[in-house]
Amino acid sequence: MKITFCGAAGTTTGSQHLLEINGQRILLDCGLYQGRREESRLRNSHFLFEPSELEAVVLSHAHIDHSGNLPNLTRQGYRGNIFTTFATRDLCQIMLADSARIQDQDARWLNRQEEKKGRTDHPITPLYTPEDAELCLRQFVTMGYERSMVIAEGVKLTFYDAGHILGSAQVALDLHEHSTGRRKRLLFSGDVGRGHNDLLRDPAVVPDVDYLIMESTYGNREHELETQADDRLSDILQNALRGRGKVIIPSFAVERTQQLIYALHELSEKGELPKVPVYVDSPLAVGATEIFRIHPECFNEEVYRFQFDKKDPFGFEELHLVRKVTDSKKLNELDGPAIIISASGMCEAGRILHHLKNNIEDKRNTVLFVGFCAANTLGARIREGQPVVNILGGSYRVRSSVEILDSFSGHADRSELVDYFEHMGGPREKVWLVHGEPEQSAALCENLRGRHDGEVNVAVWKESVEF
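Above: the chain sequence. Below: its structure as tokens.
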């Protein structure tokens, strides 16, 4: 048995891990790498394996850094099944199409810039089209949590709730190596949720794990406590809106936006949210919210009961859902305080770029980050306090306030990752840490080594390990 780390090793994007057993190849996740433009194009265009030789693909959840290169995999010759949960499939239907649309828009914009410079020899093309995304979806095979299925010779798959986003799963693979007769359980954590989520259930405890591929996004960082988060969100909003400014919130369209809507709904009911318009300016987020409503199997008990009492967890009087481009442009003309939630969360594409461009130089405004931003993204540069940033080809001085509220993160922090590890009893043999910047993974590695007799190592991109 062998694993090759084809992505999200030494970084938090482009999740891809290749398992080899009984002469078969199984890919865990197929995410887009997000970072510097040229490096991203090279990594995303060229797989470290031949797609047509894969036996199966298993998808942990719908976030683009885990699912976003699936249409390209299909385009390059993969014809097998893509196993995932029901909610993940539904989210991918809108998210992969959206990814294709953004790539097309970016390619058109970059080609226009090159034409202005007289360079037309090598036009940029998208990785894949909306048609590729639709064809890819035909290969999806859906399963419920804790229902098992044999997906290849000697490989049985079971999904366990990861509590990260709607439909997110830990991937348990019961492996039977025919040449040696050995039987082992490999667990890929996917992205681990924090637990006590406003909307979702806690991560499930997976028993009898021998080998573990585990995320380490916040391996050396603690989030704020939930009670502090509610107070801080209220304080940030009230301070910003009192000054007649706008609050611009870059937010992932899936899960983070719905969690924000639910939190703002609660603040509104408590009288702690000023009576100002709240705009969700993202067709993807609006579509995702509709999908949330049809998957109560993922909700925690409180939201599950809330919904079945015929109340809408994702709607309140001040909330406005924006789909049309014309309505989005009208937000630039707003005079007075407002809250605008828009994708993408890392500020790499989408309508958020226009809202930042139009508002970041006004000191009355506030940019509020409620999630992780990978290194070298626009969101990371703003979070780090860079005084001038490039947005849509122009340079803008950051005069607005910048606030960070990581307690909304869907990723477990250091203590929560350790709790997750210890609750499963710890794998008996080996652990590989993935999906983390180097300092985060290294810190968690040292932490876990002090708690575990087996091997704990940080995965290395392109490295293959036998087990």
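The chain has 14 helices and 22 strands.
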